[in-house]
Inverse folding.
């Protein structure tokens, strides 16, 4: 019940395309869903996060779509650029106790020029 | 505003040795979490410190221990190192204010156990 499943494992998109990364969770106690971007040799950087009381959140070129009934959420990157090439992780956290982040397995995104 | 910093950047140790990793939290943050990231995997929660006390622990053995200091900086200690401990160790700081909160990661310490 603590797992977050992420897909696809890897994704190649042409510049300007809209990569979509999906995550699914089981634990309905989760109430915070962030996305992180990680470049090789660096720590994960927080991109955008959503709570289950909204179905969509946009920040710049990044959009999270959230489907509470399906227990799924996804990241869309608009007008993707080669500089967006990185590994993306979804995560989930619940409010009780230590608010640990449970991460998905990651998606290696490549944006071709 | 100073971000999360970690030291050292890289470390090579021999199986059976002990290691201490250090983390300085972001200015204004009072909570530190440690994660282990194996190659090609997502980070795994080790434990969290709040007000100098352990506030929760993941599925890691007792040879993984930690400390948080009054200035909110933190240490991760690993005893009796095993080959499988080779990973990127990440520290994340946050401000506990009720409910889930944003965690900001440092650059990590790459530990290699030979």
């Amino acid at each position: 019940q603590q797992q977050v499943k992420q897909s696809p494992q890897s994704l190649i998109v042409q510049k300007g395309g809209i990569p979509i990364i999906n995550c699914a969770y089981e634990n309905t106690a989760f109430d915070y869903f962030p996305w992180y971007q990680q470049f090789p040799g660096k720590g994960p950087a927080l991109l955008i996060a959503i709570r289950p009381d909204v179905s969509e959140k946009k920040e710049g070129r990044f959009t999270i779509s959230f489907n509470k009934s399906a227990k799924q959420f996804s990241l869309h990157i608009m007008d993707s650029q080669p500089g967006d090439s990185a590994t993306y992780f979804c995560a989930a956290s619940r409010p009780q106790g230590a608010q640990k982040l449970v991460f998905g397995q990651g998606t290696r995104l490549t944006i071709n020029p | 505003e100073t971000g999360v910093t970690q030291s050292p950047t890289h470390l090579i140790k021999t199986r059976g040795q002990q290691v201490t990793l250090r983390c300085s939290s972001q200015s204004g943050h009072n909570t530190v979490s440690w994660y282990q990231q194996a190659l090609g995997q997502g980070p795994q929660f080790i434990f969290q410190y709040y007000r100098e006390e352990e506030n929760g622990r993941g599925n890691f053995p007792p040879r993984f221990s930690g400390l948080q200091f009054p200035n909110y900086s933190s240490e991760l200690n690993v005893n009796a190192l095993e080959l499988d401990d080779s990973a990127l160790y990440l520290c994340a700081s946050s401000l506990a204010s009720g409910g889930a909160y944003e965690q900001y990661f440092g650059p990590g310490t790459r530990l290699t156990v030979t």
